[in-house]
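Lab channel / #folding
Pinned by the channel admin:
"Please post every new chain as: sequence first, then the structure tokens as a reply. Keep commentary short and put observations after the output so the thread stays searchable."

First post following the new format, from NK:
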Amino acid sequence: MHKRMEAIVSGKVQMVMFRDFVQRKASALKLVGEVQNLPDGTVRVLAEGEHSHLMLLLKKLHKGSLLAHVSGISLLWARPKKQHTSFSIQYGK
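Reply from TO:
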């Protein structure tokens, strides 16, 4: 079953290659969506795909990239909106 997961990841997750890490892991899991730094120092991950693949990504988010330290993740689950065709890194808005 396809789902949409929005995660806000807190901790030392900016300036540690976290977005690149998320993009590589999500793409390998055949998920679509985006990852972006937020002004408050957190990282927003929006991913859509098979629920089991989203759960695998969530497990990887808890671990984080080599230099990251994840202190918490807030989650929101929803129906997929099918707005993405790949998984991308969003840079500043």
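NK: The helical segments are 18-28, 51-63.
TO: also worth noting, Residues 51-63 form the longest helix (13 residues).
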